[in-house]
Amino acid sequence: MVRLGGVPLVVRTVDGLLDSGAVDAVVVAVRVVDLDLVRGMFPGRDRVDVVAGGSDRTSSVRAALEHGLAAYPATHTVLVHDAARALTPASLVADLVAAVAAGAGAVVPVLPLADTVKEVGPGGGVLATADRSVLRAVQTPQAFEVSTLRRAYAAASEPGAAGATDDAWLVERLGEPVLTVPGDPLAFKITTPWDLRLAEMLVGAK
User: Fold this and answer.
1) In sequence order, what E strands does 53-183 have?
2) SS3 per residue for 31-62
3) Confidence of residue 45 (pLDDT cuts 50, 70, 90)
4) In this predicted structure, what is the pLDDT of residue 205?
């Protein structure tokens, strides 16, 4: 709901998806108490549906997926996106959709890590240092061929799937390959006051 340049993040994110030319419809999952508020943010947009989410990320995506597939049964490709990534470039969205159209079952955008990453124990001591050359930071949207994502969510109620932080991990649990495409620094997640300050600077520079 936070405003960026006077526009709520969720509105910027939805408009960015639709303006990409690669997305036909968007389903937004929100808290029940925010349904009317968010629905009022999209007047005249017949390709934007707002539905009640769940108690966590996985259940919210499931609710949006079930609604979307019922409303748009001819869907071939599903993107799962974070509303907080409001500056995601249209070109990245198009690249992901194109990768699924070319035959990929699951595709995620990634960036190389600039920082050294260490595993730290409960007491604060370093346990190990990861090889960052093989690590990547994962962004959204993440793109899926619809049957792949449906199977992943059908299995998401099994033990071990609780608390999934991204949908690609649910696909990985099926033993299915997940491909990558280059991400974009502009697709960063706006979750802290510093992130918002940076985003305001970027919007003001356009």
Assistant:
1) 77-80, 106-112, 118-120, 126-129, 136-138, 142-145, 179-182
2) CHHHHHHHHCCCCCCCCEEEEECCCCHHHHHH
3) confident
4) 64
